[in-house]
Design a protein that fits this description.
With about 200 residues, the chain is α+β, with helices and mostly antiparallel strands. It is built from six helices and eight strands, in the order βαββααββαββααβ. It has an eight-stranded antiparallel barrel with strand order 1-3-2-8-5-7-6-4. A hairpin with a 3-residue loop joins strand 6 and strand 7. Helix 4 packs across helix 5.
């Protein structure tokens, strides 16, 4: 599975939201698995969209054919767009599926990992972070993805922002020490995204 993560700063909120609904046109595209997104809780005006495809080939075919027509509806409503493509590696918890209807927030962590530490980082994700997240109340499902250049994406869906906040406050510092995250990670950026049901395809 291919995961696409889009971030942008919205300059015309009403126009952007209207255009976002046009992405319903993705339904029926070969290889399309689902899409959802919403607004950053920490940075007002920053939108995040997550899109899932069966494979890179299906995604490339969509980009060549239908993408520009669907995207035209949002032209001029945003700036500073950043797009990342990640190959799915494994589930966080079990049975990941790109379903957004039962989640309130998505937590996304984008990590650039030091050369030579990739194997350790991936192992710690599997042995330390995954069990801790999977056992946290309100954590629904998630995935671990990889992009060229030692870049990784950890995406987790939560029933509520409060439950995610509790996990963060109680566990993250301790888990970071155990997983030696500081030794593995050169750079980390992330966001907590409040999902907008109208953006779900």
């Amino acid at each position: 599975m291919l995961v696409k993560w889009i971030r942008c700063t919205v300059i015309d909120r009403r126009g952007f939201e209207r255009g976002q609904r046009k992405w319903a046109g993705l339904l029926g595209e070969p290889g399309f698995r689902g899409q959802g997104g919403g607004w950053s809780r920490e940075r007002p005006g920053v939108a995040h969209i997550f899109s899932f495809w069966e494979s890179r080939a299906f995604y490339d075919s969509f980009m060549a054919r239908s993408h520009d027509r669907l995207a035209a509806a949002q032209s001029g409503t945003y700036k500073n767009i950043q797009v990342g493509l990640f190959d799915y590696r494994f589930d966080v918890k079990t049975g990941f599926e790109p379903r957004f209807t039962d989640a309130d927030v998505v937590r996304v962590a984008h990590c650039k990992v030091h050369e030579g530490r990739v194997e350790h980082f991936s192992l710690m994700q599997e042995k330390v972070w995954n069990p801790a997240m999977a056992g946290s109340p309100g954590m629904l499902r998630g995935l671990f993805g990889e992009a060229p250049g030692n870049e990784f994406l950890v995406l987790s869906m939560w029933h509520s922002a409060a439950e995610h906040g509790k996990y963060r406050a109680e566990r993250v510092e301790r888990l970071s020490l155990r997983a030696q995250t500081d030794a593995d990670v050169a750079e980390i950026a992330g966001a907590v995204v409040r999902l907008d049901p109208a953006w779900t395809v």
